[in-house]
Amino acid sequence: MALIKSLNGISPKYGESCWFAENSVVVGDVVMGAECTAWYYAVIRGDVNSIRMGDRVNVQDHAMIHCTYKTAATEIGNDVSIGHRAIVHGCTLQDRCLIGMGAIVMDHAVVEEGSIVAAGAVVVENMVVEGGYIYAGVPARKIKPIGDRADMISRIAGNYVKYASWYQE
Description:
By secondary structure, the chain is mainly beta. Helices cover 11% and strands 38% of the residues. The chain has one helix spanning 150-167, and strands at residues 3-5, 13-14, 19-20, 25-32, 37-38, 43-53, 58-59, 64-66, 74-76, 81-82, 87-89, 92-93, 98-99, 104-105, 110-111, 116-117, 122-123, 128-129, 133-136, 141-145. The longest helix has 18 residues, at 150-167. The mean pLDDT is 97.
């Protein structure tokens, strides 16, 4: 069973058909929508501020979602994929975004709807990732329009709902 822990009288809340790997951690002021998943060693830590997640958000293996005390909550929209070992910290990820493996999104950054942050990219504090584009590099910069990859974002989010169903059988 995942570690789903109350803190300071606040318990995580999650929607219908969510799935949590046995060693994932969800703590404190976290609200997740329906069909979200937290994979192996994922940490979603709402201990110092709030974390709000929409529907069909997948937090893949070793990824971490956190926030900054009193100054930077984390907000995540619907159909968002957060890749293996990514860090999402005190920022906003709008609907249908893909955060690549090992990417970092820092405080007060905004990743607009329908965009991709490439594997290993670093979205620095206060940066805005323009919707419909791929950003890559350290620090991240606009590379090109996502073009025909737009459907891929929703497909990946849907795939993680399917993968979770294999574990629930």
